[in-house]
Each structure stands twice: as structure tokens, then as C-alpha cells.
Amino acid sequence: MGVLCAVFLSQGASARAVPVPQPRPESTPIYRSYQKEIECLSRAIYFEARGEPHVGQKAVARVILNRVESNFYPDTVCDVVYQNDHLKNACQFSFACDSLPDRIREPRAFETAELIARAIFDCDERRCDVHQPLRRSTHYHADFVLPGWASKLERTGQVGRHIFYYTASM
To answer: Which of 9, 52, 111, 165 fits as disulfide partner to 56, beta carbons 3.0 to 4.6 Å?
Structure first.
């Protein structure tokens, strides 16, 4: 089987192929300290989706947790969020490798992101209302880009400016 690559485009950057992660051995996800995992998840929600409706923010959080549970990605929230952060504009979540300072400039939006992170992480059915088929999503991108990998995955829906996808093989 060949190595799949995802192509990432960012403003002012050329296309860059990045190897898709290989599966890790079967294991149960390792959740580090609860607070550290919530912090990483909150930051990802804030920087990736703070302008989206709550259901869109929840769907972004669900993508991250779905990756943690997958054998194809790291087994902690922080490791998923910051995977390949050393590769400029070629990591899993653009805020982590765009060379911009990750400053929280909207405290209220960050509080909302943290509440969403806790609800999704704890996933009480009353608060975990990411709707099917979005609930199983493993990927997403903004609607103003068209990554090469998108045509290879099953589209699960769109919320706001984000289009969500699923693949069983990742």
C-alpha cells in the first residue's frame, strides 16, 4: 500500500505534501492530566472555530477526540492537536504551525471553548449534542480551501465555514 499524503495550502504558501500518519498498535487512548487535555482541546476549539456556531465548535472538538481514539493518530488530545507543529503550515491544525503567536484575545470566546471542551471530553449525552453524521467525523477544512484529501473521504456535513469528513481507514 502506498503512502497517502495530504496537501495543505495556506495563504501565500505553495502546496505541500505531508505524509498521512501510519496506524499505531492497538491501544487504549492515554489521557494525560485532565486539565492539560482540556487546555489543548480548548485552544484548538478557540483558534480553529471560535467564530462558528456552538455545534460547529463541538464538531471540531469531536474530530480531535475521534483522532485520539483512532489507531492512526497520537493517543492524547495534546499530541493530536500539536502533531507536526514543527512543520510550518503543514500540521494537522493550522493554528499550531502558522508561526503566529497563540494569544487568547477574546476571553469570553475562550471561556465558551473551554465549556465546550469539557462537555465534549466528558460527553454526557445531555451536553454532547454533536449530531450524526458529524459525530463520527475525523477531518475538516474551511470552505474556502479544497485540500486534495477531501475527495478521498466521505463528506459528513457542513457547519458554518467548516466542511467535515470521515474515513474508516484513518
So the answer is: 52
Q: Note down the domain range covering 59.
A: 34-134
pTM for the structure as a whole? 0.77
| 147 close to 6: Cβ distance less than 8 angstroms | yes
Tally of domains in the chain: 1
87-145 per-position pLDDT tens digit = 887 888 999 988 888 999 999 999 999 999 998 888 744 456 666 778 889 999 999 99
Nearest to 147, CA basis, from 57, 18, 58: 18
Compute, in degrees rounded to 10, the torsion defined by CA atoms 111, 112, 118, 120.
-160
Within a domain: 48? yes
